[in-house]
Amino acid sequence: xxxxxxxxxxxxxxxxxxxxxxxxxxxxxxxxxxxxxxxxxxxxxxxxxxxxxxxxxxxxxxxxxxxxxxxxxxxxxxxxxxxxxxxxxxxxxxxxxxxxxxxxxxxxxxxxxxxxxxxxxxxxxxxxxxxxxxxxxxxxxxxxxxxxxxxxxxxxxxxxxxxxxxxxxxxxxxxxxxxxxxxxxxxxxxxxxxxxxxxxxxxxxxxxxxxxxxxxxxxxxxx
Length: 223
Ligand SMILES: Cc1cc2nc3c(=O)[nH]c(=O)nc-3n(C[C@H](O)[C@H](O)[C@H](O)COP(=O)(O)O)c2cc1C
Prior knowledge:
The chain has 7 helices and 7 strands; from the N terminus they run αβαβααββαβαββα. The protein has helices at residues 5-19, 35-48, 60-63, 67-72, 89-103, 127-140, 189-216; strands at residues 23-29, 53-59, 75-83, 86-87, 113-120, 144-145, 173-176. Strands 1, 2, 3, 4, 5, 6 and 7 form a 7-stranded mixed sheet that branches. GO terms for molecular function: electron transfer activity; FMN binding; NAD(P)H dehydrogenase (quinone) activity.
């Protein structure tokens, strides 16, 4: 016989309350000269804007020695500078290491949330190629890719350099750092705000997935 409705609802609420722990959203990034590091810090702020989410910020080098923490995270956001139209060598080293450490051990990141960001010297600079590479990387791990979800700016006479998503990307967050400026002043505030938006969006999505998984879990057998 089925449990009566009142008891079933109370049971589900207790389960949801018990499961409402902090979720971890990791950021794995590389930065040769500090510009992408500023973008990563803005993504972190976005995660921390969301109640119930906690950020774990790791360089690609650190990440390669902290697989267990990444395995425990609900989401991983990947970030790299664009170097010669691709991810940096240090970030690529991390990606290749994940094949042995994560894929070969049973696709341990399957069904985690993923997203990405990149920064480069030129406005385009072939950053899209890097975001595509990051999305493919996530797909190879069986992760769920989260897009930027901001309308592209600067496509009309009303556009400005202060607009969110001023560079007009959809797949992830993009930033542009003048090559004659240090990371104190580049990338500009609009690109950091765009990165912060991505962090918030990923944290909210990860929380929605966590809640959905609790709802979807089969009811325990009645005794
Ligand atoms: C080896 C190398 C390759 C680069 N290739 C590109 C490129 O393909 N497109 C671009 O727009 N900028 C390119 N840049 C510029 C960097 O993307 C830019 O300086 C960026 O802000 C560096 O970020 P970081 O300080 O986090 O390392 C390159 C820089 C280096 C050192």
